[in-house]
Write a structure and sequence with these properties.
By secondary structure, the protein is mainly β. The chain has no helices and 19 strands. The protein is elongated.
């Protein structure tokens, strides 16, 4: 079972040229075909089937939309209990097509929303996330999920997203991503995990 895709029998294939290394997921389509023998070696051909035809970066990268580490700490006074707190991050999709994201919220947070200001699309989950809980959203085509991970279990909370939410992708070029929550937390963290550009060819 491939842990990254959840598909049985799927392999991770790498291709390297003079400039860069790429990866793609695929399955062996047919048994090996042996063509001819040279000295003590058999020359063979193996065919792979790749359901998602796009090549990916060699490694995915984690992108912090909001994080707090070190620095100064001080009391924060807000005039309204439901004041909206926002954080912004610009992400550039350098690939050839739109790319899905996996968003992880580490609580505490209340009714968190992440918005692609470039397209106006957003995903909002109407619930409270505890300090030791994590909300994971996957926007990949056919793999759209919204799960709350607690110290004891994984809970499907797909029904908690607002009706106007969309499982958006990052368009080619610059994307301005905004995270907002109805209550500010000093310990909450928002990360886009394992992001990779997608390429038509290599």
């Amino acid at each position: 079972m491939n842990q990254a895709t959840g598909k049985r029998g799927e392999l991770l294939i790498y291709y390297t040229n003079d400039y860069k290394t790429y990866r793609i997921y695929g399955k062996v389509e047919n048994s090996a075909e042996f063509n001819d023998r040279k000295r003590n070696r058999d020359k063979s051909t193996i065919s792979f089937y790749c359901q998602d035809p796009y090549w990916l970066d060699e490694k995915g990268k984690d992108i912090d939309v909001k994080s707090v580490s070190g620095g100064l700490s001080f009391p924060l006074s807000l005039p309204n209990h439901f004041a909206l707190v926002s954080f912004y991050k610009e992400i550039e999709n350098e690939g050839d097509t739109e790319a899905p994201v996996q968003i992880e919220y580490e609580g505490p947070a209340t009714n968190p929303r992440i918005t692609n200001e470039t397209t106006g699309e957003y995903i909002q989950v109407n619930m409270e996330i505890g300090e030791k809980e994590k909300l994971v959203i996957n926007t990949a085509e056919g793999q759209e999920t919204v799960n709350l991970i607690t110290p004891h279990e994984v809970i499907d909370v797909y029904n908690k997203i607002t009706l106007s939410s969309t499982f958006f992708k990052l368009i080619v070029g610059k994307n301005l991503i905004r995270y907002s929550s109805e209550e500010e937390g000093a310990k909450d963290k928002v990360t886009i995990k394992g992001y990779s550009n997608k390429y038509v060819g290599v």
